[in-house]
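WARN retry 2 of 3 for item q-0093 after timeout on previous attempt; input resubmitted unchanged.
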Amino acid sequence: MNASVDVACRVSPALSEILEAQADHPEAIQPATLGSVRAALVGGGLAEVYDADRLHPQTARSILSELDDLIEEFGEEAAARDFVVIEASLELSSVIQSVIDGASRPPTLESVQEAMGRGLVARLVGEGAIDPDDDETLQEELANLIRRYGPHVPAECFLRYE
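OK item q-0093 returned
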């Protein structure tokens, strides 16, 4: 399964954070699955990753319930990585939305980077949509997304709505 906007919209930020931590665990022998994340959550294996305050028993029950719903629908062997929600910052989301608004076809991360290189950020700064000091941070954030997901991923997948 490839990550989809529909799945991403159904995963809470707390569960997404846990799924990502398990998917990126440096000592993992096998890729993390929904079932392995559930086993770690039930077995207390996530205590080292999360402070007690962040994984309060009631929060853990809620996350476990959410995880059980995903397992019921997608199976225990579904890759945890496919359910990680990655969102751009609000500032980068503004840049992406600006590219989407002016594009004839859905833009990719690469096309957003090209638009930024052609002065999009300066225009948005002039319009007051983003802070003048954000240019370098936005470039770095976008470069990290491209390194992680590739240049041809639809930029829309990373929009943050608030």
